[in-house]
Write a structure and sequence with these properties.
38% of the residues lie in helices and 15% in strands. The protein has 513 residues and is of the alpha/beta class. Strands 1, 2, 3, 4, 5, 6, 7, 8, 9, 14 and 15 form an eleven-stranded mixed sheet that branches. Strands 10-13 form a two-stranded antiparallel sheet. The two termini are 26 Å apart.
Length: 513
């Protein structure tokens, strides 16, 4: 990738001029630069072979089942189920199969209209697509012109969901790790191509919208199956694309941004500084180093810091975190009773993490950065180098700010968080795995012909701005909307505006300057 310093020389003047405490936006169209990078074509060949085989009849005449139309306010929906290979490199007729679920969505009255298709790729990894309850936000906006396809990526939602209960069918850590290796972006793209040639008339190309990790998948799609794409929209989802494993680079940058988010949080809610210190001291002094959680896990000082994952990086996150903390203690209603953390808080803590319903997020998280190298529990190693800045107990004793962590997964979580305990050994195997296949082809991105527009959030805690800009410089023709008006959750918070802005960039309605 090009250096951060070189990229800063391209972007710093407009940022200094336009980015301020008042929400502002700028547009950039970086020129791609060539890289010296050994690009593998194995995934491209797999996608090509799969598309060619399945477009003329596929694995089976019953590999796609479509349901009947049904309604929610202002929308019509139809469910689709596809039977796909677990491993696309194997013989389709004999290899294990999984089910992929997708929901087709149109505005009321447009069921039979010849609308262009738009595929939505959800953030994650390990989270299902939205479940529409009405026509609103970006979904309503998209359905004005498109036939929307909400894909449950493999392992999520109704796509052979890998849950805390279903994964126990795989009886050994080795068997589970070997199964889970097929649930990354490369195979999500294979699934998307499998679906496209069955849904889109004449197997034509479609537009895709990738949010967060869905954007990572979209760039994989752009790398290895660009002929299936008409346009690409990215929202907070431009991945690091260097060779080997980029996790160390990602976490080094993200820890720095997380510190800034902590400082902003405590400036907003200064009363929480002492509350958090007191909770940390209480947990550290408690027998066993923490208190038991409702599910059977344990809340420790380092576990408390995980609240930053959902509390520091999205809109209303600061407020939700503050309102959790204001009810952290039970009242003393009997004289002499011991002070204790409330059940309300402990339950809210577990719900905020969501690992009971979406464990795949934790198990596969660092692998999304790996190509031909292991992650080796990257976030844990980078944290250890940070000279105790994130040592909660030490910070509380010294009267410093107790820093919450951000989007990081640590090995000890598979001991302290009850729903993750059964998967500790498999997670360790995946963290040590080195032979991950490629996820990106920089040569292909340098020569990209597909129109691409991206929303880049300047203060994004999850997808670092500088790293995103490095990658953007390698995608030929990409048009950027850089803004601090939204955080990482911009598509959820201002979906109509974000969708309009990106479509305007592609249609020429929004000028570059």
């Amino acid at each position: 990738m090009c250096s951060i310093r070189a990229l800063q020389s391209l972007t710093k003047p407009p940022l200094l001029r336009f980015i301020s405490s008042t929400p502002q936006s700028i547009l950039l169209n970086p020129s791609p630069k060539s890289l010296s990078f050994h690009s593998s074509r194995r995934l491209a060949a797999a996608v090509t072979a799969m598309t060619g085989a399945n477009s003329s009849g596929g694995c089976s005449p019953s590999d796609h089942v479509a349901g009947d139309w049904y309604s929610v306010p202002d929308l019509r929906l139809r469910d689709h189920s596809f039977t796909v290979p677990l491993d696309y490199s194997l013989d389709c007729s004999t290899c294990p199969k999984i089910t992929i679920f997708a929901r087709e969505v149109v505005s009321v009255g447009k069921e039979e209209q010849p609308l262009p298709f738009l595929l939505y790729l959800q953030g994650g990894p390990g989270f299902e697509s939205p479940r529409p309850t009405e026509g609103s936000g970006w979904i309503s906006k998209a359905c004005e012109e498109y036939r929307l396809v909400l894909l449950d990526q493999r392992g999520t939602g109704l796509s052979t969901p890998l849950t805390a209960s279903s994964m126990t069918q795989l009886k050994s850590p080795e068997e589970l790790a070997n199964y889970l290796k097929h649930f990354r972006a490369d195979n999500i793209v294979n699934d998307a191509e499998f679906i496209r040639v069955r849904l889109v008339p004449d197997a034509g190309p479609w537009t895709i919208l990738g949010q967060s990790y869905g954007g990572f998948c979209a760039v994989t799609y752009l790398s290895f199956a660009p002929k299936g794409l008409k346009q690409v929209l990215l929202t907070g989802g431009i991945p690091p694309i260097g060779s080997s494993c980029t996790a160390d680079t990602v976490y080094s940058a993200c820890f720095a941004q997380t510190i800034r988010q902590n400082e902003k949080y405590y400036k907003r809610f200064p009363q929480d500084v002492e509350i958090v210190r007191e909770v940390v001291s209480h947990l550290a002094e408690h027998e066993g180093g923490g208190v038991h959680l409702p599910s059977g896990g344990i809340l420790t000082p380092r576990g408390l810091q995980l609240l930053g994952l959902s509390g520091l990086g999205s809109s209303t996150g600061f407020e939700r975190l503050h309102y959790m903390l204001e009810r952290v203690w039970d009242p003393i209603i009997v004289a002499g009773a011991q002070k204790q953390i409330s059940y309300y808080f402990l339950n809210a803590y577990e719900r905020s993490l969501g690992f009971d319903t979406n464990p795949l997020y934790a198990i596969l998280h660092e692998s999304i950065y790996c190509q031909g190298a292991s992650s080796g529990w990257s976030a844990d190693r980078i944290r250890a180098k940070d000279e105790g800045k994130f040592d909660a107990v030490k910070a509380a004793k010294e009267g410093r700010l107790v820093l919450f962590t951000g989007e990081m997964i640590f090995p000890w979580m598979f001991e302290e968080i009850h729903p993750l305990r059964p998967f500790k050994d498999a997670a360790n195997l995946l963290a040590a795995k080195e032979d991950w296949p490629p996820l990106y082809d920089i040569d292909s991105l340098n020569n990209n012909k597909v129109p691409v527009a991206a929303a880049v959030y300047y203060e994004d805690m999850y997808v670092n701005f500088k790293l995103a800009m490095e990658t953007a410089s390698q995608i030929a023709g990409i048009r950027l909307w850089i803004t601090n008006e939204f955080m990482h959750s911009g598509l959820r918070d201002g979906g109509s505006q974000v969708f309009d802005q990106l479509m305007g960039l592609l249609s020429g309605k929004k000028p570059l300057f």
